[in-house]
Structures are given as structure tokens and as C-alpha cells.
Amino acid sequence: MISTPYRQTAVALINEAVTAGARRSIACLELQISERTLRRWTRGGQVHPDRRPLVPRPEPANTLSPDERAAVLDVCNSTEFASLPPSQIVPKLADQGRYLASESSFYRILRADGQQHHRGRAKPPVRRKPPTSYKAGAPCEVWTWDITWMPGPVAGMFFYLYLIVDIFSRKIVGWEVHERESAELASNLIRQAVLVEGCITRPLVLHADNGSPMKGATMKVTMEKLGITASYSRPRVSNDNPFSEALFRTCKYRLNWPTKGFATKADAQTWVKSFTSWYNDDHLHSAIRFVTPNERHAGHDRGTLASRASLYANARAQNPERWSGKTRNWQPAGPVWLNPETETSAPEIRDAA
């Protein structure tokens, strides 16, 4: 119930706003009341007290007695039903020829007694903390990697593609095809990629899923020796590793992907080598202003984008009537975030160049 002093204050504020030129509906909206409520409060030109006082609600005539409520609690807490919810208890009681109360009454009684919670042995759902956010402002600052299946010569046989991608440039910085998943094989690939890219003395974050190859002892030791910061997705949340997942989709939807599988491991390696060459050197990536990953990785994208911007500026100068707004944005793409939260709360690897 809203007190009379509050009503008087609200009406005075609304009248003041209307006198100053504001619309009554807008003033009411600011105080979160409706115009109809305002009219009811000020009927007859004065603020009226509430004519609808709250009264105690009478107890329903058909309410359960204290003994009946106690019987429901005794059944719910018995050895037979202690791990079951009311939706399971009520039908089982019916099969035994017993009726104590409706299912909704069971829930209501448990809630009133503070027992409406998880009742089984399985652990209740846990809200997991999201993975740490990382910002990449240059190459070799944040990498992600994952393993995917490549179909073999017969159904049920697979080869395993290991892929590492730099999220800033989208360059594939390491890949290999093996016949099994292994932390040892993964650690060798990581070591090789770090040496090739020459970032062994630079801070580097490596993000992966929660699979055993990603968290194996050999993998952890390798990353510690190389000074790599480990980052992991939440269990069973593929969205936490979006760059690797998107790369796998691009890979498997290439027109020359063999739908009937690869005959040998060598065939799979040959195909991935060709794909990597195309992706890094020829593929114009939409997320980095349609330059190739290698151009972005080496810093050559700025010249390409500057040339495009100059071309568009000249085209607009020659035919300005054909342009209704600004020319296309050919500025270099900015920093890239892995699982962003807010720019102020997430740790930053380094500022963008």
C-alpha cells in the first residue's frame, strides 16, 4: 500500500513538471505510475488516501490440517521417498492406494518447510564461472587449438587433425594429422609452432577445450617450459573456443573435401597442407577486412587496405552523386577478444599497434 505522503510528493512533482512544459504521461512514466492512477489519487482536486486497505486473507476452509501437513512431510522424508520429487511420490502413493494431498500441495508444503530443493544423489546444476577473457592486439599473443576427426577409408576409422590458429591474424600457425589423440603429439606440435613463429620469449596464451590431450601432464609441462599461459573452455561448451570451431567448419566445407574419406594418413596430410596454404595465403577473411591471414600476420594488410581506401576515395570524387554516405571502411581491423566480458575487467596481452 502506498502511503499518503508519498502520493502527495508524487503529485507535486508531476504538477511541477507539467507546469514547466512536460507532458503528463512522460512525468508519470518517470515515477513509474500510470495516468489512470494519478487521476484516482487526485479525484476532486485533492490527494485522497488509499480507499482499498490491505486486510488479512482468510484461511481457506479446505486447507490441510497441521496433522495432514506433518503426514506429507513424514512421507517425503521417509527412506523410500527421500530422494524423489513430489511428481514421483504422488503416483507411487496412488499405486499403494494412498492419497494424502495433491502434487501441488506437496510442493507447497515442502517449500513452506524449507525443503524444496534438489532431493536426489546427483549433484544439482552448478553455474560455472565463464573462462577468462584475453585481448590480442598483435600476432602471437593468443592462440587457440583443437582436434577434429577426419574420415578414414572405412566407416568408424578416423584420422585426427590438430590445428592451431592465431586469433589476431586468423593464421594457421601449426597443424598435423595423426592416427590418435595424444598429449605428447600435441605438445610436440605446440613446441614446433612456437619455434617457427619465433615467440618463445614473448607472452602467449593458448586456449583449448577440456579434452585429455589438452590437459595431459606432458602438455602442461611443455607449456610451462615455453612460458605459455593455459586457458580452457568450460566443460561441454564449444562456444568458448569459437575460432577453432569456425576454422574446422571452413575446413570441412571446402568443395574438395573428400566426402568418402581419406584413403591413408598421407592423403589426409597432403589435403591439409593444401588447405592451409590456401587459407593462409589466398583466403580473404571477412573478419579482418578481407585480407589474407598471412598479410595480417606480417603487418602487410595496412598497405593493402590503404590502397583500397584510396581507390574508393578517388571513385567517390569522380562520381560524388553515386555515394549517399561514407565510403566502405578499409581501416585495419582492431584487437580481437577471446571470450570477451568487458574491456575493463579482462586482462590485456598488449595494446593494439
UniProtKB/TrEMBL annotation:
<feature type="region of interest" description="Disordered">
    <location>
        <begin position="317"/>
        <end position="353"/>
    </location>
</feature>
<dbReference type="InterPro" id="IPR050900">
    <property type="entry name" value="Transposase_IS3/IS150/IS904"/>
</dbReference>
<dbReference type="InterPro" id="IPR036397">
    <property type="entry name" value="RNaseH_sf"/>
</dbReference>
<protein>
    <submittedName>
        <fullName>Transposase</fullName>
    </submittedName>
</protein>
<dbReference type="Pfam" id="PF00665">
    <property type="entry name" value="rve"/>
</dbReference>
<dbReference type="GO" id="GO:0015074">
    <property type="term" value="P:DNA integration"/>
</dbReference>
<dbReference type="InterPro" id="IPR001584">
    <property type="entry name" value="Integrase_cat-core"/>
</dbReference>
<dbReference type="InterPro" id="IPR048020">
    <property type="entry name" value="Transpos_IS3"/>
</dbReference>
<feature type="region of interest" description="Disordered">
    <location>
        <begin position="114"/>
        <end position="133"/>
    </location>
</feature>
<feature type="compositionally biased region" description="Basic residues">
    <location>
        <begin position="117"/>
        <end position="130"/>
    </location>
</feature>
<feature type="domain" description="Integrase catalytic">
    <location>
        <begin position="135"/>
        <end position="301"/>
    </location>
</feature>
<dbReference type="GO" id="GO:0003676">
    <property type="term" value="F:nucleic acid binding"/>
</dbReference>
<dbReference type="InterPro" id="IPR012337">
    <property type="entry name" value="RNaseH-like_sf"/>
</dbReference>
<feature type="region of interest" description="Disordered">
    <location>
        <begin position="44"/>
        <end position="63"/>
    </location>
</feature>
